Amino acid sequence: MPKIALDPIIADLARALAVRLDALVLQTAEVILGEIENYRSEEVHLEDLHTQVRHNLSCTLTHLADGQALDLTRSMETGRLRALQGMPLPEVLRAYRLGCMCFWEQLLKEADRVGPQAQTAMLNAATYIWEMKDSYCTAVTTAYRDTLAERMVETDRRRSALLAALIDGPPPGSDTVWEIARMLGFPYQGTFILVAAEAVVVGDPPLPGLDAKCRAVDVGSAWRAQPGYELGVLSCPRGQAVELALEAVRASATGRVGVSPAYDRLDQTSRALRYAHVALESLPPGIAAVRQLDDTPLTELVISNLENTQRAVRRILGGVLALPDEDRTTLLATAQAWLDARGSAAEAARALYCHPNTVRYRMHRLEEFLRGPLDNPKIVAELSMAVDAVGAFPTLLGHHPVPHHP
Protein backbone atom coordinates (compact mmCIF):
# COMPACT_ATOMS: atom_id res chain seq x y z
CA MET A 1 0.00 0.00 0.00
CA PRO A 2 1.30 3.55 -0.71
CA LYS A 3 2.93 5.34 2.22
CA ILE A 4 1.34 8.66 3.12
CA ALA A 5 2.73 11.48 5.27
CA LEU A 6 1.74 10.72 8.85
CA ASP A 7 2.27 12.95 11.87
CA PRO A 8 5.76 12.22 13.29
CA ILE A 9 4.09 11.50 16.61
CA ILE A 10 2.74 8.25 15.09
CA ALA A 11 6.31 7.12 14.47
CA ASP A 12 7.20 7.88 18.08
CA LEU A 13 4.19 5.89 19.30
CA ALA A 14 5.22 2.94 17.11
CA ARG A 15 8.79 3.00 18.46
CA ALA A 16 7.46 3.03 22.02
CA LEU A 17 5.33 -0.02 21.34
CA ALA A 18 8.21 -1.82 19.60
CA VAL A 19 10.03 -1.84 22.93
CA ARG A 20 7.17 -3.92 24.39
CA LEU A 21 6.86 -6.20 21.34
CA ASP A 22 7.19 -9.47 23.28
CA ALA A 23 4.35 -8.53 25.62
CA LEU A 24 2.17 -7.41 22.69
CA VAL A 25 2.73 -10.74 20.93
CA LEU A 26 1.69 -12.75 23.99
CA GLN A 27 -1.35 -10.58 24.63
CA THR A 28 -2.54 -10.72 21.01
CA ALA A 29 -2.05 -14.49 20.77
CA GLU A 30 -4.03 -14.98 24.01
CA VAL A 31 -6.95 -12.96 22.61
CA ILE A 32 -6.98 -14.98 19.38
CA LEU A 33 -6.82 -18.29 21.24
CA GLY A 34 -9.55 -17.22 23.63
CA GLU A 35 -11.93 -16.03 20.91
CA ILE A 36 -11.41 -18.56 18.10
CA GLU A 37 -11.79 -22.25 18.90
CA ASN A 38 -10.16 -23.40 15.64
CA TYR A 39 -6.89 -21.81 16.74
CA ARG A 40 -6.89 -24.07 19.79
CA SER A 41 -6.83 -27.20 17.61
CA GLU A 42 -3.83 -29.45 17.14
CA GLU A 43 -3.43 -28.17 13.59
CA VAL A 44 -2.27 -24.72 14.76
CA HIS A 45 0.88 -24.84 16.86
CA LEU A 46 1.29 -22.14 19.51
CA GLU A 47 4.80 -21.37 18.32
CA ASP A 48 3.51 -20.90 14.77
CA LEU A 49 0.81 -18.49 15.98
CA HIS A 50 3.34 -16.49 18.00
CA THR A 51 5.66 -16.29 14.99
CA GLN A 52 2.82 -15.07 12.75
CA VAL A 53 1.65 -12.44 15.26
CA ARG A 54 5.20 -11.26 15.92
CA HIS A 55 5.92 -10.84 12.22
CA ASN A 56 2.73 -8.87 11.58
CA LEU A 57 3.22 -6.59 14.58
CA SER A 58 6.90 -6.06 13.81
CA CYS A 59 6.18 -5.20 10.15
CA THR A 60 3.40 -2.82 11.13
CA LEU A 61 5.49 -1.02 13.75
CA THR A 62 8.49 -0.78 11.41
CA HIS A 63 6.27 0.59 8.66
CA LEU A 64 4.82 3.28 10.94
CA ALA A 65 8.13 4.11 12.64
CA ASP A 66 10.55 4.11 9.70
CA GLY A 67 8.36 4.14 6.59
CA GLN A 68 9.59 0.75 5.35
CA ALA A 69 7.37 -1.02 2.83
CA LEU A 70 4.68 -3.23 4.32
CA ASP A 71 5.89 -6.83 3.99
CA LEU A 72 2.91 -9.05 3.11
CA THR A 73 4.97 -12.18 2.38
CA ARG A 74 4.32 -13.74 5.77
CA SER A 75 0.59 -13.08 5.49
CA MET A 76 0.52 -14.87 2.14
CA GLU A 77 2.39 -17.81 3.66
CA THR A 78 -0.12 -17.85 6.51
CA GLY A 79 -3.03 -17.85 4.08
CA ARG A 80 -1.54 -20.82 2.24
CA LEU A 81 -0.80 -22.70 5.48
CA ARG A 82 -4.29 -22.17 6.90
CA ALA A 83 -5.84 -23.42 3.65
CA LEU A 84 -3.73 -26.57 3.82
CA GLN A 85 -4.75 -27.01 7.48
CA GLY A 86 -8.42 -26.76 6.53
CA MET A 87 -8.99 -23.66 8.65
CA PRO A 88 -12.13 -21.76 7.51
CA LEU A 89 -11.20 -18.48 5.82
CA PRO A 90 -13.64 -16.38 7.93
CA GLU A 91 -11.85 -17.59 11.07
CA VAL A 92 -8.45 -16.71 9.61
CA LEU A 93 -9.63 -13.20 8.75
CA ARG A 94 -11.22 -12.88 12.18
CA ALA A 95 -7.83 -13.61 13.75
CA TYR A 96 -6.32 -10.76 11.73
CA ARG A 97 -9.12 -8.41 12.81
CA LEU A 98 -8.60 -9.34 16.46
CA GLY A 99 -4.88 -8.78 16.08
CA CYS A 100 -5.48 -5.36 14.56
CA MET A 101 -7.90 -4.45 17.36
CA CYS A 102 -5.31 -5.40 19.99
CA PHE A 103 -2.70 -3.33 18.20
CA TRP A 104 -5.06 -0.35 17.86
CA GLU A 105 -5.99 -0.46 21.57
CA GLN A 106 -2.33 -0.49 22.62
CA LEU A 107 -1.55 2.36 20.25
CA LEU A 108 -4.46 4.36 21.71
CA LYS A 109 -3.25 3.72 25.26
CA GLU A 110 0.19 4.97 24.30
CA ALA A 111 -1.36 8.07 22.70
CA ASP A 112 -3.42 8.72 25.85
CA ARG A 113 -0.25 8.53 27.91
CA VAL A 114 1.52 11.04 25.65
CA GLY A 115 -1.31 13.56 25.57
CA PRO A 116 -3.91 15.39 23.41
CA GLN A 117 -1.55 16.03 20.48
CA ALA A 118 -0.88 12.30 20.14
CA GLN A 119 -4.59 11.57 20.40
CA THR A 120 -5.29 13.98 17.52
CA ALA A 121 -2.53 12.36 15.44
CA MET A 122 -4.11 8.95 16.06
CA LEU A 123 -7.51 10.21 14.92
CA ASN A 124 -5.99 11.50 11.68
CA ALA A 125 -4.09 8.25 11.07
CA ALA A 126 -6.98 5.89 11.90
CA THR A 127 -8.11 5.33 8.31
CA TYR A 128 -4.56 4.59 7.15
CA ILE A 129 -3.90 2.14 9.99
CA TRP A 130 -7.09 0.17 9.32
CA GLU A 131 -6.28 0.12 5.61
CA MET A 132 -3.07 -1.65 6.62
CA LYS A 133 -5.24 -4.34 8.20
CA ASP A 134 -7.16 -4.63 4.92
CA SER A 135 -3.87 -5.12 3.06
CA TYR A 136 -2.98 -8.02 5.34
CA CYS A 137 -6.44 -9.55 4.93
CA THR A 138 -6.34 -9.19 1.16
CA ALA A 139 -2.97 -10.94 1.00
CA VAL A 140 -4.23 -13.76 3.23
CA THR A 141 -7.44 -14.16 1.24
CA THR A 142 -5.68 -14.25 -2.12
CA ALA A 143 -3.15 -16.86 -0.99
CA TYR A 144 -5.83 -18.92 0.77
CA ARG A 145 -8.10 -19.03 -2.28
CA ASP A 146 -5.25 -19.74 -4.68
CA THR A 147 -4.14 -22.65 -2.50
CA LEU A 148 -7.68 -23.94 -2.21
CA ALA A 149 -8.10 -23.79 -5.99
CA GLU A 150 -4.83 -25.70 -6.47
CA ARG A 151 -5.97 -28.36 -4.00
CA MET A 152 -9.32 -28.70 -5.73
CA VAL A 153 -7.63 -29.22 -9.09
CA GLU A 154 -5.25 -31.75 -7.58
CA THR A 155 -8.12 -33.53 -5.84
CA ASP A 156 -10.19 -33.64 -9.03
CA ARG A 157 -7.25 -35.07 -10.98
CA ARG A 158 -6.60 -37.67 -8.31
CA ARG A 159 -10.24 -38.73 -8.11
CA SER A 160 -10.42 -38.83 -11.90
CA ALA A 161 -7.42 -41.16 -11.99
CA LEU A 162 -8.98 -43.38 -9.32
CA LEU A 163 -12.24 -43.54 -11.27
CA ALA A 164 -10.29 -44.43 -14.41
CA ALA A 165 -8.81 -47.38 -12.52
CA LEU A 166 -12.30 -48.54 -11.56
CA ILE A 167 -13.57 -48.19 -15.13
CA ASP A 168 -10.60 -50.06 -16.55
CA GLY A 169 -11.73 -52.91 -14.36
CA PRO A 170 -9.35 -54.14 -11.64
CA PRO A 171 -9.67 -57.86 -10.93
CA PRO A 172 -12.85 -58.62 -8.97
CA GLY A 173 -12.26 -58.56 -5.23
CA SER A 174 -8.69 -57.32 -5.59
CA ASP A 175 -7.06 -55.21 -2.89
CA THR A 176 -6.74 -52.47 -5.49
CA VAL A 177 -10.48 -51.82 -5.45
CA TRP A 178 -10.56 -51.70 -1.66
CA GLU A 179 -7.78 -49.11 -1.71
CA ILE A 180 -9.52 -47.06 -4.41
CA ALA A 181 -12.72 -47.12 -2.36
CA ARG A 182 -10.85 -45.87 0.69
CA MET A 183 -9.19 -43.02 -1.22
CA LEU A 184 -12.49 -41.98 -2.80
CA GLY A 185 -14.23 -42.05 0.56
CA PHE A 186 -16.65 -44.71 -0.76
CA PRO A 187 -17.56 -48.05 0.80
CA TYR A 188 -16.38 -51.08 -1.15
CA GLN A 189 -19.84 -52.60 -0.76
CA GLY A 190 -22.82 -50.26 -0.88
CA THR A 191 -25.20 -48.89 -3.47
CA PHE A 192 -23.77 -47.21 -6.57
CA ILE A 193 -24.92 -45.93 -9.94
CA LEU A 194 -22.76 -44.90 -12.88
CA VAL A 195 -23.73 -41.82 -14.88
CA ALA A 196 -22.65 -41.04 -18.46
CA ALA A 197 -23.56 -37.45 -19.36
CA GLU A 198 -23.25 -36.05 -22.87
CA ALA A 199 -21.43 -32.71 -23.16
CA VAL A 200 -23.66 -30.45 -25.23
CA VAL A 201 -21.22 -27.51 -25.35
CA VAL A 202 -17.48 -28.12 -25.31
CA GLY A 203 -16.04 -26.86 -22.03
CA ASP A 204 -19.38 -26.62 -20.24
CA PRO A 205 -20.28 -29.18 -17.56
CA PRO A 206 -23.07 -31.48 -18.78
CA LEU A 207 -24.57 -31.65 -15.27
CA PRO A 208 -24.05 -28.19 -13.74
CA GLY A 209 -24.70 -27.98 -10.02
CA LEU A 210 -25.04 -31.74 -9.58
CA ASP A 211 -22.29 -32.09 -6.96
CA ALA A 212 -24.02 -29.61 -4.65
CA LYS A 213 -27.37 -31.38 -5.12
CA CYS A 214 -25.72 -34.73 -4.33
CA ARG A 215 -24.05 -33.41 -1.20
CA ALA A 216 -27.43 -32.12 -0.02
CA VAL A 217 -28.77 -35.71 0.00
CA ASP A 218 -25.53 -37.29 1.33
CA VAL A 219 -24.59 -38.82 -2.03
CA GLY A 220 -20.87 -38.98 -2.78
CA SER A 221 -19.49 -38.62 -6.29
CA ALA A 222 -16.34 -39.03 -8.36
CA TRP A 223 -15.99 -37.83 -11.96
CA ARG A 224 -13.86 -38.34 -15.02
CA ALA A 225 -14.01 -36.19 -18.15
CA GLN A 226 -14.00 -38.02 -21.50
CA PRO A 227 -14.14 -36.58 -25.02
CA GLY A 228 -17.77 -35.63 -25.55
CA TYR A 229 -19.11 -36.69 -22.16
CA GLU A 230 -18.40 -37.10 -18.46
CA LEU A 231 -18.56 -40.24 -16.33
CA GLY A 232 -19.46 -40.26 -12.68
CA VAL A 233 -19.92 -42.84 -9.96
CA LEU A 234 -22.48 -41.85 -7.33
CA SER A 235 -22.35 -43.54 -3.93
CA CYS A 236 -25.83 -43.69 -2.38
CA PRO A 237 -25.66 -44.55 1.33
CA ARG A 238 -29.36 -44.68 2.18
CA GLY A 239 -32.36 -46.61 0.91
CA GLN A 240 -33.97 -43.70 -0.93
CA ALA A 241 -30.69 -42.13 -1.96
CA VAL A 242 -30.70 -43.70 -5.45
CA GLU A 243 -34.00 -42.06 -6.35
CA LEU A 244 -32.86 -38.78 -4.78
CA ALA A 245 -29.64 -38.98 -6.80
CA LEU A 246 -31.62 -39.65 -9.99
CA GLU A 247 -33.84 -36.65 -9.26
CA ALA A 248 -30.72 -34.51 -8.88
CA VAL A 249 -29.36 -35.85 -12.20
CA ARG A 250 -32.65 -35.10 -13.97
CA ALA A 251 -32.72 -31.57 -12.53
CA SER A 252 -29.15 -30.92 -13.77
CA ALA A 253 -29.17 -32.57 -17.21
CA THR A 254 -28.43 -30.34 -20.20
CA GLY A 255 -28.19 -33.20 -22.73
CA ARG A 256 -28.56 -36.96 -22.94
CA VAL A 257 -27.67 -38.83 -19.76
CA GLY A 258 -27.42 -42.60 -19.39
CA VAL A 259 -27.57 -44.22 -15.96
CA SER A 260 -26.63 -47.78 -15.07
CA PRO A 261 -28.73 -50.03 -12.87
CA ALA A 262 -27.78 -49.81 -9.19
CA TYR A 263 -24.90 -52.14 -8.26
CA ASP A 264 -23.51 -53.14 -4.89
CA ARG A 265 -19.72 -53.47 -5.30
CA LEU A 266 -17.22 -51.03 -6.76
CA ASP A 267 -15.48 -53.76 -8.76
CA GLN A 268 -18.67 -53.93 -10.90
CA THR A 269 -18.11 -50.38 -12.20
CA SER A 270 -16.73 -51.43 -15.58
CA ARG A 271 -19.84 -53.55 -16.20
CA ALA A 272 -22.08 -50.67 -15.13
CA LEU A 273 -20.32 -48.46 -17.69
CA ARG A 274 -21.71 -50.56 -20.56
CA TYR A 275 -25.25 -50.08 -19.28
CA ALA A 276 -24.81 -46.32 -18.87
CA HIS A 277 -23.35 -45.94 -22.38
CA VAL A 278 -26.14 -47.93 -24.00
CA ALA A 279 -28.78 -46.03 -22.01
CA LEU A 280 -27.32 -42.76 -23.29
CA GLU A 281 -27.11 -43.96 -26.91
CA SER A 282 -30.71 -45.21 -26.78
CA LEU A 283 -31.97 -41.65 -26.27
CA PRO A 284 -32.76 -39.55 -29.38
CA PRO A 285 -30.02 -37.02 -30.18
CA GLY A 286 -30.56 -33.36 -29.38
CA ILE A 287 -32.70 -33.74 -26.27
CA ALA A 288 -32.10 -33.26 -22.54
CA ALA A 289 -33.24 -36.51 -20.94
CA VAL A 290 -32.14 -39.16 -18.46
CA ARG A 291 -32.54 -42.90 -18.94
CA GLN A 292 -31.70 -45.71 -16.56
CA LEU A 293 -31.62 -49.31 -17.76
CA ASP A 294 -32.92 -52.22 -15.74
CA ASP A 295 -30.58 -55.10 -15.00
CA THR A 296 -32.49 -57.89 -16.81
CA PRO A 297 -31.30 -60.89 -18.85
CA LEU A 298 -32.64 -59.23 -22.01
CA THR A 299 -30.75 -56.01 -21.28
CA GLU A 300 -27.58 -58.00 -20.66
CA LEU A 301 -28.09 -59.86 -23.93
CA VAL A 302 -28.69 -56.70 -25.92
CA ILE A 303 -25.78 -54.66 -24.58
CA SER A 304 -23.41 -57.61 -25.03
CA ASN A 305 -23.76 -57.16 -28.77
CA LEU A 306 -26.13 -54.51 -30.06
CA GLU A 307 -25.36 -55.15 -33.71
CA ASN A 308 -26.23 -58.85 -33.48
CA THR A 309 -29.38 -57.98 -31.55
CA GLN A 310 -30.39 -55.53 -34.25
CA ARG A 311 -29.89 -58.19 -36.91
CA ALA A 312 -32.04 -60.63 -34.93
CA VAL A 313 -34.78 -58.00 -34.52
CA ARG A 314 -34.74 -57.34 -38.25
CA ARG A 315 -35.04 -61.04 -39.01
CA ILE A 316 -38.08 -61.30 -36.73
CA LEU A 317 -39.77 -57.95 -37.42
CA GLY A 318 -38.22 -56.95 -40.74
CA GLY A 319 -41.54 -56.55 -42.55
CA VAL A 320 -43.09 -54.62 -39.68
CA LEU A 321 -40.13 -52.26 -39.43
CA ALA A 322 -40.48 -51.43 -43.12
CA LEU A 323 -44.05 -50.15 -42.63
CA PRO A 324 -44.87 -46.43 -42.34
CA ASP A 325 -44.21 -45.06 -38.84
CA GLU A 326 -47.86 -44.95 -37.78
CA ASP A 327 -48.61 -48.53 -38.87
CA ARG A 328 -45.40 -49.85 -37.36
CA THR A 329 -46.04 -48.10 -34.02
CA THR A 330 -49.62 -49.40 -33.89
CA LEU A 331 -48.68 -53.01 -34.57
CA LEU A 332 -45.79 -52.99 -32.10
CA ALA A 333 -47.95 -51.41 -29.36
CA THR A 334 -50.67 -54.01 -29.99
CA ALA A 335 -48.13 -56.84 -29.89
CA GLN A 336 -46.78 -55.59 -26.57
CA ALA A 337 -50.28 -55.33 -25.06
CA TRP A 338 -51.19 -58.80 -26.40
CA LEU A 339 -48.04 -60.33 -24.93
CA ASP A 340 -48.60 -58.57 -21.59
CA ALA A 341 -52.15 -59.96 -21.60
CA ARG A 342 -50.78 -63.51 -22.22
CA GLY A 343 -52.52 -63.71 -25.58
CA SER A 344 -55.92 -62.43 -24.42
CA ALA A 345 -57.42 -60.10 -27.02
CA ALA A 346 -60.01 -58.88 -24.48
CA GLU A 347 -57.34 -57.92 -21.88
CA ALA A 348 -55.17 -56.29 -24.54
CA ALA A 349 -58.18 -54.33 -25.84
CA ARG A 350 -58.83 -52.91 -22.37
CA ALA A 351 -55.23 -51.75 -22.14
CA LEU A 352 -55.39 -50.19 -25.63
CA TYR A 353 -58.92 -48.74 -25.24
CA CYS A 354 -60.19 -50.48 -28.35
CA HIS A 355 -62.45 -53.41 -29.32
CA PRO A 356 -61.12 -56.99 -28.96
CA ASN A 357 -61.80 -57.58 -32.66
CA THR A 358 -59.45 -54.67 -33.44
CA VAL A 359 -56.71 -56.44 -31.48
CA ARG A 360 -57.41 -59.71 -33.30
CA TYR A 361 -57.27 -57.96 -36.68
CA ARG A 362 -53.98 -56.30 -35.89
CA MET A 363 -52.44 -59.51 -34.58
CA HIS A 364 -53.52 -61.39 -37.73
CA ARG A 365 -51.93 -58.64 -39.78
CA LEU A 366 -48.76 -58.81 -37.68
CA GLU A 367 -48.69 -62.59 -38.13
CA GLU A 368 -48.26 -62.11 -41.89
CA PHE A 369 -44.84 -60.56 -41.26
CA LEU A 370 -43.59 -63.22 -38.85
CA ARG A 371 -41.80 -66.48 -39.61
CA GLY A 372 -44.78 -68.57 -38.55
CA PRO A 373 -48.21 -68.54 -36.88
CA LEU A 374 -48.76 -67.21 -33.37
CA ASP A 375 -49.96 -70.62 -32.15
CA ASN A 376 -46.33 -71.71 -32.40
CA PRO A 377 -44.59 -71.07 -29.01
CA LYS A 378 -41.23 -70.47 -30.77
CA ILE A 379 -42.75 -67.68 -32.88
CA VAL A 380 -44.32 -66.13 -29.78
CA ALA A 381 -40.95 -66.32 -27.99
CA GLU A 382 -39.20 -64.62 -30.91
CA LEU A 383 -41.87 -61.93 -31.06
CA SER A 384 -41.65 -61.34 -27.30
CA MET A 385 -37.86 -60.95 -27.44
CA ALA A 386 -37.97 -58.60 -30.42
CA VAL A 387 -40.79 -56.42 -29.03
CA ASP A 388 -39.10 -56.15 -25.63
CA ALA A 389 -35.80 -55.28 -27.30
CA VAL A 390 -37.18 -52.45 -29.43
CA GLY A 391 -39.21 -51.22 -26.46
CA ALA A 392 -36.10 -51.00 -24.30
CA PHE A 393 -33.80 -49.83 -27.11
CA PRO A 394 -35.68 -47.67 -29.64
CA THR A 395 -32.48 -47.19 -31.62
CA LEU A 396 -32.85 -50.79 -32.78
CA LEU A 397 -35.61 -49.48 -35.04
CA GLY A 398 -33.16 -47.22 -36.88
CA HIS A 399 -31.59 -47.86 -40.25
CA HIS A 400 -28.01 -47.68 -39.04
CA PRO A 401 -26.02 -49.96 -36.76
CA VAL A 402 -26.23 -49.00 -33.12
CA PRO A 403 -22.83 -47.91 -31.67
CA HIS A 404 -21.27 -50.54 -29.44
CA HIS A 405 -19.38 -49.56 -26.28
CA PRO A 406 -17.37 -52.17 -24.47
Would you write up a description of this structure?
With 406 residues, the chain is of the alpha+beta class. The protein is 64% helix and 9% strand. Strands 1, 2, 3, 4, 5 and 6 form a six-stranded mixed sheet that branches. The longest helix is centred in the middle third of the chain and has 53 residues.
Helix content: 55-70%
Number of domain units:
3
CATH class descriptor of the largest domain: Mainly Alpha
The total count of strands amounts to 6
Described by the principal axes of the CA atoms, the overall outline is rod-shaped
Summed up, the helix count is: 16
| Fraction in beta strands | 5-15%
Mean pLDDT: 85
Could you tell me how far the N terminus lies from the C terminus, measured between alpha carbons in angstroms? 60 Å
* CATH third-tier fold name of the largest domain: Globin-like
What is the CATH architecture annotation of the largest domain?
Answer: Orthogonal Bundle
The main β sheet shows up as: 6 strands, mixed
